[in-house]
Amino acid sequence: MTKTTAHNPKRYRVGRYFTTLKPLDIPFDLSDAQRATEQAFNLLNDRLFGGKLEPVIITLQSSRGSYGHCSVKKIWNNGSADNSKREINLSVDYLSIDPMHYVGTVLHEMCHAFNLQNNVIDCNPSNQYHNKKFKTLAEAVGLVVTKEGHRGWCRTRVAMSILDGVEPIAEQAISELRLQPFWQKQHFDFQRGSGIGYNPKTGTDKGIEIKPKPLGGHSKMKKWSCDCTIVRCAVELVADCQQCDSPFELA
Prior knowledge:
3-stranded antiparallel β-sheet; alpha+beta; 4 helices; 3-stranded mixed β-sheet; Zincin-like
């Protein structure tokens, strides 16, 4: 057994990740994160997009393999095309990684929404390749953008200083966001996962009974999900759902 020391602190499992931070014994509510995200969207829209980004519906749902997405079409409506809205979803599977990372994801999806609003194609819907039109806008609002293989300029993070090569205007807006009464870190100190401290050998966690997942034979089939269904495929699935227009992602 590894000894716990100052240089080797105890690690806690939270969902799919391990952290040295001790789990918080406080209640949490997804609606708090939802409201804080919506108000953060409004502040970032005002500071970084000049208030010109149309309202969207923000959802917090499971979306493994992706930090978030923005719907190509305005899939939310009440029967009137004039009132229809796009959707920005933030994955609850990665909610507690880091507040700066989370807001960076919000900004990433806001860039997609702004480009879609202005009829700018910044991403190939068939393979999620982020082109230089996405890169240009992302850098303009203070994101550092790097290229990653077949997905193009998809990796983004908030620029922290001018040394990043990008004006750190997003960091300034986020600093202002942190001072807002609605933005509380505890709203994001949780995430959806497979269970805290799950022990697959005993099926328990500190005396709390957890039903183990059934063991099955080896299979190459993997589950891929969109916003409305799940399919199984043995190879990488690069496609959009014809029903909800969202890309299939590894579930």
